[in-house]
């Protein structure tokens, strides 16, 4: 009887440990995503100032600016799930890269003090976003491993926990930058 109680106690402790570990990993993913989301919102809030500065110099780049503004509006929308936010973030990063390349054609704009400050702030935010993405991806990987590995996978199935998506770089952004073409025109 005593052995049975010890074994039952160990099993109960194992179940509690697995449950708490899974909840901790799930909450960590949500917490890190919330931090990343806050940095992204800060970038979206900075964007109108950047767009206003650039608009004066880039009349023919109107379409790019309109797309960036549209993506910003979508990203700030209510009730977006994480997958939608990740997809919008990929599109937004791509469009922002296009805007910065287009700015290279405007020496007066590049010398403008307000624009330089905004660009510096945006670069700093991009570094923070990059760090937050790495932290998020590591947290998601730990979580996904926990829900798929033995023996916690049984507890995860009972809890109906599902895999989370990591931030990934679109293949178009993995290509090497042709710096020579950036300086043409």
Characterise this structure.
The protein is mainly α and 185 residues long. 79% of the residues lie in helices and 0% in strands. The protein has 8 helices and no strands. Helix 1 runs antiparallel to helix 2, helix 1 runs antiparallel to helix 5 and helix 2 runs antiparallel to helix 3. The protein is elongated and about 85 Å long. The mean pLDDT is 81.
* Number of β-strand runs: 0
Low-pLDDT parts are none
What CATH architecture do you see? Up-down Bundle
Largest sheet: none
Give me some keywords for this one:
185 residues; mainly alpha; de novo design (two linked rop proteins)
Topology overview:
Blueprint: H1 2-55, H2 62-75, H3 82-103, H4 107-111, H5 113-148, H6 152-159, H7 171-174, H8 179-182
Helix pairs in contact: 1-2, 1-5, 2-3
Compact overview of the structure:
This protein has 185 residues and is mostly helical. It has one domain (22-182): de novo design (two linked rop proteins), CATH 1.20.1440. The chain has eight helices and no strands.
């Amino acid at each position: 009887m005593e052995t049975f109680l010890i074994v039952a106690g160990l099993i109960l402790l194992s179940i509690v440990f697995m449950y708490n570990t899974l909840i901790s990993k799930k909450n960590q993913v949500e917490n890190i995503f919330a931090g990343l989301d806050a940095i992204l919102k800060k970038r979206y809030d900075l964007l109108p100032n950047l767009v206003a500065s650039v608009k004066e110099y880039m009349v023919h780049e109107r379409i790019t600016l309109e797309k960036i503004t549209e993506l910003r509006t979508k990203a700030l929308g209510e009730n977006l799930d994480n997958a939608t936010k990740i997809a919008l973030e990929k599109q937004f990063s791509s469009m922002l890269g296009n805007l910065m390349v287009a700015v290279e054609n405007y020496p007066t704009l590049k010398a403008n003090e307000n624009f330089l400050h905004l660009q510096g702030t945006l670069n700093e935010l991009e570094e923070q976003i990059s760090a937050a993405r790495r932290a998020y991806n590591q947290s998601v990987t730990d979580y996904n491993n926990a829900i798929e590995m033995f023996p916690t996978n049984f507890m995860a199935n009972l809890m109906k926990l599902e895999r989370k998506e990591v931030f990934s770089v679109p293949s178009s952004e993995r290509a090497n930058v042709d710096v020579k073409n950036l300086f043409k025109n």
